[in-house]
Design goal:
Elements: H1 2-23, E1 37-53, E2 56-60, E3 65-70, E4 77-78, E5 83-87, H2 90-132, H3 138-177, E6 180-182, E7 187-192, E8 199-200, E9 208-213, E10 218-226, E11 238-243, E12 246-265, E13 268-278, E14 289-304, H4 316-335, E15 362-363, E16 366-367, H5 378-388, H6 395-423
Antiparallel strand pairs: 1-10, 1-14, 2-9, 3-5, 3-8, 4-7, 5-6, 7-9, 10-13, 11-12, 11-14, 12-13, 15-16
Helix pairs in contact: 2-3, 4-6, 5-6
Length: 424
């Protein structure tokens, strides 16, 4: 029998020890600590922008026609002067042939005019000799002179016609040369807007056939900075940015230009800031969206702590425990009201408000700090101590316990006055 009693006692002690070790952990406050670190503190202006090549050339055509051949495609590397496309040259070649024929006609007319001029010159010279011998009239000499001058002018007009025909031929030959689309720069083809067999019309504006980026190892970002931050941006400031294609990579650049032309969209004024970026690995591609951070101030060796150390958010379990404890404490305070003492609220009251007692520190349904100089009763001190033993995260139940102690003190004073009146 003694062994059974001893075993029961041991089990009870073990159970009590386990409860003290594990069962009371929910009332403990757990803290997460991190070391204070020395880091670099920076002030930044953030914005978004698009990545572009520093120089992009739009290649078009000056003549209309049907696209006959394409010699390059997307991402093709081209050299300056390389033929990248051809337009059907049939129409332009016909114009060249016609211009050549017109030139030949002009030259023939010039020779004819020169022959007529020489004939008029011989007649004039003969008439001058005959007039000197008084063999012809003065009117015949004047007529021959007039014909000579007229034919001389015809020769000049024929020579001008030759020059005009030569110019028309050069123009036709130039248009024939335009049927070959040539790359104006060294670079890479970014876009192509036409296909073989497509007709291009250059009547009113030059159609764009290709877009060629001159050098993709040097890129720029056009960012829109709000007018409230543009005063902080200066040329030469360091820039960090990321793109969605490489979220783990941080690229760097430098502010190259702050443009003063405003851009207004829906009454929002922004300014364009150009950031130069090196793209040696060719990771950045034209059109990418960049999340830009411009460093406007920086300070090193600054002691820093995480922002989470400045805020506290109790868990749902802690909130539920606090509400449960507060409800239980309020119920216990109501049951401890002595018999013969009038309660704060009668059974038939319509209003839920309590009477306010300036000396008790209890006003209505809210607890507040006790009045200065008020002495605590032993019961009040005991309840306050028990309320504060549940941890730093349960201050509200402690305040309720303190209010209950004040109420008990007032009730004791009321009973003492009633006993004094009965004795009198």
């Amino acid at each position: 029998m003694k062994k059974i009693i001893a075993g029961v006692i041991v089990l009870v002690l073990v159970g009590a020890g386990l409860w003290l070790v594990f069962g009371n952990k929910k009332s403990q406050v757990k803290y997460t600590t991190v070391p204070v670190k020395s880091r670099t503190l920076r002030s930044m202006v953030t914005a978004t922008g698009s990545v572009y090549a520093v120089k992009t050339v739009s290649v078009g055509t000056q003549i209309s026609g049907t696209l006959k051949e394409l010699h390059v495609d997307y991402n093709s590397r081209v050299r300056k002067g390389q033929v990248i496309a051809e337009i059907d040259p049939a129409t332009q070649q016909a114009q060249v042939d016609q211009a050549k024929a017109n030139l030949m006609v002009a030259r023939a007319n010039a020779e004819k005019a020169r022959a007529v001029q020489e004939d008029a010159q011989r007649i004039r010279d003969r008439n001058q000799q005959l007039f000197a011998r008084n063999l012809i009239a003065r009117a015949d000499l004047d007529t021959s002179e007039t014909n000579y001058q007229s034919n001389k002018a015809q020769v000049s007009a024929a020579m001008a016609q030759i020059a005009q025909s030569e110019a028309a031929l050069r123009n036709a030959q130039t248009n024939l040369g335009y049927t070959k689309i040539i790359s104006p720069v060294d670079g890479i083809v970014v876009s192509r807007a036409v296909d073989v067999g497509q007709t291009v019309a250059a009547s009113f504006q030059t159609p764009t056939l290709f877009s060629i980026a001159q050098d993709l190892t040097k890129m720029q970002i056009d960012t829109s900075i709000d007018e409230a931050d543009i005063g902080k941006i200066e040329k030469g400031q360091q820039v960090e940015f990321t793109v969605d294609a490489y979220p783990d990579n941080t690229f760097r650049g430098v502010v190259d230009e702050v443009r003063i032309a405003p851009i207004t969209v829906s009454n929002v004024v922004t300014y364009d800031v150009v950031v130069k970026v090196s793209n040696d690995e060719l990771k950045l591609k034209p059109g990418m969206t960049a999340n830009v951070s411009i460093v406007i101030a920086s300070k090193s060796d600054v002691l820093m702590i995480p922002n989470s150390a400045l805020r506290f958010k109790p868990s749902e379990k802690e909130l539920a425990n606090a509400k449960s404890y507060a409800s239980k404490t309020t119920a216990d305070a109501a049951t401890r009201t002595p018999a013969g003492v009038k309660s704060d609220r009668t059974a038939g009251e319509a209003s839920p408000q309590r009477a306010s007692d300036p000396s008790s520190g209890v006003s209505g349904d809210r607890m507040r700090k006790p009045a200065d100089g008020m002495r605590r009763s032993p019961r009040q001190e005991g309840e306050s101590a028990s309320g504060g033993a549940d941890g730093a995260s349960r201050k509200a139940p402690g305040q309720l316990a303190e209010g209950v102690g004040l109420q008990g003190q007032n009730q004791g004073d009321t009973q003492a006055r009633r006993r004094g009146d009965g004795a009198g």
